[in-house]
Structure formats: structure tokens, C-alpha cells
Amino acid sequence: MRNVAIVGTGHSKFGVRNDVSMQELAWEAVKQALEEANLEQKDIQYFVVGNVGMWSAEELPAVVVGEYCDLTPKGTMRVEAACATGSAAIRDAYQAIKAGEIDVALVVGVEQMSQSPNPQVIELIGRAGNYFWEFENFGLTFPGYYALYASAYMAKYGMKEEDLGSVAVKNHYYGARNPYAQFQKEITMEEYLKSKPVAQPLKLLDSSPITDGAAALILASEEVARKITDSPVWIVSQGVASGTANLSRRTDFTGIEASYVAAKEAYKRAKIDFSDAWRYFDVADVHDCFTIAEIMAYEDLGFAKRGEGHLMARNGETYIGGKIPVNVDGGLKAKGHPIGATGVSMAVSITRQLLYRAHKGTQADIRNGMGITHNVGGTGHYAYITIYSTRRPSS
Amino acid sequence: MRNVAIVGTGHSKFGVRNDVSMQELAWEAVKQALEEANLEQKDIQYFVVGNVGMWSAEELPAVVVGEYCDLTPKGTMRVEAACATGSAAIRDAYQAIKAGEIDVALVVGVEQMSQSPNPQVIELIGRAGNYFWEFENFGLTFPGYYALYASAYMAKYGMKEEDLGSVAVKNHYYGARNPYAQFQKEITMEEYLKSKPVAQPLKLLDSSPITDGAAALILASEEVARKITDSPVWIVSQGVASGTANLSRRTDFTGIEASYVAAKEAYKRAKIDFSDAWRYFDVADVHDCFTIAEIMAYEDLGFAKRGEGHLMARNGETYIGGKIPVNVDGGLKAKGHPIGATGVSMAVSITRQLLYRAHKGTQADIRNGMGITHNVGGTGHYAYITIYSTRRPSS
């Protein structure tokens, strides 16, 4: 099959973006990606829009974004995989090129969550899972779901509040150095420990924010990529899995099964040994919608043994210079989490890391030329793992 | 690239289905497809769910459907292309197999429109297009959009009400013979002419209904398809295009530009000559959300010359035995239009036609072994064309 490369990246400022419409926000990222790839809209053969959009009244976000970005009449669709929507969009374009249907595709993830004609954002996010069963019957909401995981992990492995806090402190440390981040400020452990409870044991500073933002990628087949850039970043493999819609049916609350299944698939395709996976990657972006999610990701991805993820955080092993730098763009926690854009934003961060184009103070050491993104939808209802490399995969 | 075949089809009863939940409705189609392919859930490597679902409170339809159908933890996503959502779902699975990511995929399109916690279905459909501009500012709704096309076509080509009516009469004639159809009754031209106006010149009997329904396909790579069935139906090619989000920016209202662009792409890939495209196909399903849409489709697909589509309807050339049988499953008009399922339903109908498995009284004569589906999202905001054949494409 054909190799697929990332040849352009774009990223908007994340935060409360009431200054723009959804399509204007998307254009900020699309424009940057086109300029980076030195391409024009006519060069794009297909575009896919990642947007959850329950809170946007634009029910045809792909065509509205497409027209504003002057991509009409190119083929398009909107994809959704909850908070993993951005990665699902990448998958659609990646497969279209790998399948030989097209040679150049644009991926844009966009979400406008703070500005909405029907502003029930929190309730809508709360519905993630099986709405009619768990939300309506038991009132389980999104922070509540992750609080169950945090409580179970604490009970089983003796994790302390400070272990969760160390993730928040790290991600704010790097967010403070990312000009695109929603929260460009560091926090202290004291501030963390004093922050308001959201769903015990999770506090406000364990939680990712409500964010408006967009991110874009331009993907190309190997033949075309060679003409566009001399620094392609290849998509080596993807792994994708789903989890039970009902958390009441999950057997374990100390890891996300779908993440583990998707990671194993992606690693198998990339010939990566799970037991020391961390050795392969120079940098990783993982889905820290809550701090506990990042700690579980360390284990689900094979960066730490079961029950030792919280120590990895406590010991600072995921800072730059540590065992494996994780979320050194600030992560969902500090960079922000515009759910349709997050997966694309992760890919932008990893691509720029591998090319030594990261923001000052956030550049990891690139030795093996490989990176990974881990993007979760809902509470492990969806999981997408993508592996990137500066070295051409053998196709 | 690898060839991709349809190896199983499933279809639920369309209509007002308050007797089932969305996931139960999906299972009706999935179960039938699995049985037809003689496969079990464990054999499915990936599934994609086509669902627009603005009126469903299930915000993660793919995982809810996946769990109910026992497909967890297989990878999945939800795709949306307005009323072309079903075809977008087929495209996702088709590309995944063609790209070599997987060998067997399940496609399910499902929509439950009549039963809803927030039953503003009509308003939600009305929003199709650019909500903030045309819907909020001008109050343009979906029937109004197509009424503009019907008026323009009448003015330019002298189409009569009876020409529109002849499409409704034909589709109800075949719908009466399709046990899955929402309206299993014939109508007369007199009934048509007396039916209530919806948006002049369109009447109630020009309009497709609000429908609950599901349809499913199982796709497989050539190697695997050979083991599953001795009667594969191959996907020969797809064409996909988009149109301006704002109808106020369209230059012509007598055809759907996106349909024409997508058809040309699909024909080019399949080496089909546009000027006599109808000769290649034994049967077609086109997107008759309103009768005018079917007449424009005749022309956008090259079945009739510009301005002659309404004559094709009037002269009965699209009945079985005519020039090319179109919507002999009843079409959206009589079979119903559950928007996330419609594109998959079209593929099920064409597959069964090509295999001589159509319902009694609806089987077309199959000579060339080729069929086509035309699925439009919004008012030509999306267009998906898919070509099917019983003869293996040269890959």
C-alpha cells in the first residue's frame, strides 16, 4: 500500500474564541497549513472535517467550513468519534490516500464550545456514554465517570492526590510556554491541592477546560509528498478500538481497555514491542481530559507497568529530558480541549516536535524520530492511536 | 489497489418505528446482513455508523449501536454527510478495506426521526444549508430550497405539475411492492394533484417522509470475499463532491452541480461515458427527497439531456422495462428517508437487484450487471455516487 505523509500543519489559538465564527476559526488553522505546505485550495482533492458540534447550530459543519475555506466543490464528510473526533478525521484522509482514491487531503478539526445558540455544553458532554441508561437513570456525568476511575486507581494502587496534581503541574508548566494554549500559566502543587472539587477525588485543576479551537493537517501520498516538502512526517500506523457504551459493564476502572487494544494494534502494525514501547518514541501526546486519564494512558500505552503510572508522574519522568516527554504542548489540561480539534492538534504538536519546530521551551530531544498520539473518545468509548516517524515506512 | 465487494446486506422495515430504540433498529439490519454473509460479530474487524442524529439524545451513536450489536471492542467511527450520510459510511469502510487496513467491515446506517427527546425534526432538517445566514435571516427551509429548484426548472423548461406527479406515482407504485417501504400503497395522478401544497410548486405527495429505519452492508476484500460468497457485488468506483453551503451563491437552480461533479468523477474512474451513461446501468437508485430532485438527477447523471428529465418521467422511461429503471424500491418518496440510513438502503436495493433478489414485482432485468446509487446531502451540499457491478473490476 502507499505511504502517507503529513506535509503541512496548522493550529489556531485555543481558548474562548467568541471573536470568530466556527468557519473563521477553522480557516485560521487551514490557512496556516496551506501556507506551510505552500499549496493552494485547488491542490486539495478531498477534505474531512472533524466536528462534534452538538452545541453548534451549523448542522452541516463540513460544507460551511468547506465553503468559507474555498474548498467547494471538493468531496468531503464530517466524522465524529466524541473527543477522538480529530483522530477519526485523520484516519479518514489517511485511508483515502492509502487506498489510492486521492493524493492530497486536508484534515481540519474544529470545535466552538463556549459560544453556542444552545449552551448546554456541560450537559451535552455529560451525556457521553449511554445517555438513556446511565445519564438519565443514574445522572452519571463526564467528570463523574473519570472520578470512578481515579477512585478505583487510588484504592488499588495507593495513588495520592499529589500524583494527580503532578500531571496538572507538568501540563501547565508546558502550557505556559505554548502561545496557542488556553491557559498560559504555571500552577503550583499548593494551588492544585486547594482547587475546588469537581467530582471527588477530581478537582477543577484535574480537569481540561471548555475550549474553542481548530487544527489542520495536509496529508499527501509519497509520490506527491516528495514534490511538496523535503521534511515529510510519515504516518506509520494507526490502531482504533471501541469500549462498552455503559460503564456499568466495565470490569476494570484502573485502565481504559480500548486504549490498550488500539495501542496493541498500532504497535503490531509498526512492529513495536509493547513491553518497552516508550523506548521507541521521542515524544507523546496523550488524552489528559482529566489528570487520571494521563496516568492510565502511561500504562495503557506500555510506558509504565500497571500500577506504576502515578509514580511516573510523581517522579517527573514525562518532562522533557525524562523517560518520555508527554503532553509537552500543555496537553488537554492547559492547551485546551476543543473536542473535534484535539486529535488533529495532537498530530500537529507531534509533527512539529519531530521536525524541531516546537515552541521555545517545549522542544523534546528527537533521537529515534518517532512520536505517538493517544486520543480517547468519551470514557474510552473510542480510542485512536497514531504513530508518526521522520523515517519512511517500508510499504 | 485491492478490490472491495459487498458480501452481505440487511434492511429494516422503514416507517414510524416507535416500537424499537435506535440500537434495536440498527440490529434488525445488522442481524440480517450477518446472516446473509454467514458471519458472526467476531469476523467483523471494523464498523462504521452513519447517523445524523441531531434529534437523538444518544450522542455517541456508534458506540451505543456497536455495543448493542456486540461489535465492541472493534474500531469504529460515526460519519455524517447530511442526507448522504449512508453513502459516506460506505466510503469510509470501502477505503479502509481498499487501503489494506482491514479485510471485513460492517456498515450500518440508522436514523430514528419520528421518536425523539427533542422533536424539532422539521426545524432541524430546515436548517440544512447555512443555518446562521439563510435559515435565521431568510427563513429558508428544506422544502423551500427544493421549491426554488422546481420553480426554476418549470420556468426554464416548461415542466408541468404532472411531470413531478409522474415521479411520485411511479415511486409509490414500486413502494407498494416493497415490504420494507413506509408507504406500501399506490397513488393516482388525481390524488397527487389534489394533495396539499408544502412549498409551491411542491405538494405533500412530492415530498419524502420523516422515517425511522436502518440498513447494513458487509464489505470484504477480494481475498476474503471469495471465501464468504460466490455472488459478490463489487464496488467499482465512487465519486464525491460538495456544493456551496449558501444557495444564494448558486448560479443555477435546474440541476445539482455537486451531483454532476461527483458523477463525472465516478464515471471517469469506472471508464463510463457520461453522454450515454444510462446504457451501462441495469438499475439506479437516485435521491428523490422531492420529486424535482429525481428529475434533476436524471440529467445530472447523464440519463437524460438537460431539460429533458421531466419528459423521461412523463414518458415512463424509468419504470422496469423502460430506458433505465430508477427507484424501483419505492425511492425516498415511498420507501422512506431515514437520513443516516438512506445511502446504505440504496446500496442494499441495488445489490439485491444485481443478484436477482429484489422483492416480487420490483426486479429489473439485469443484462450488464451494473447499478448505480446517487445520494445527496442537504440541497446538493454533499453528493455521493457509487457504482456497483457483478463483474470483478480490474484492480
Automatic annotation (TrEMBL), chains A, B:
Domain Thiolase C-terminal: from-to ranges: 239-389
GO MF annotation terms: acyltransferase activity, transferring groups other than amino-acyl groups
Keyword Acyltransferase attributed: yes
Pfam families: Thiolase_C_1 (PF22691), Thiolase_N (PF00108)
InterPro entries in the cross-refs: Thiolase, Thiolase-like, Thiolase_C_2, Thiolase_N
Highest taxon of source: Archaea
Enzyme Commission numbers on file: 2.3.1.-
Lineage of source species: Archaea, Thermoproteota, Thermoprotei, Sulfolobales, Sulfolobaceae
Name recorded for this polypeptide: Acetyl-CoA thiolase
GO biological processes: isoprenoid biosynthetic process
Enzyme kind, highest EC tier: transferase
Thiolase N-terminal domain ranges (all copies): 4-223
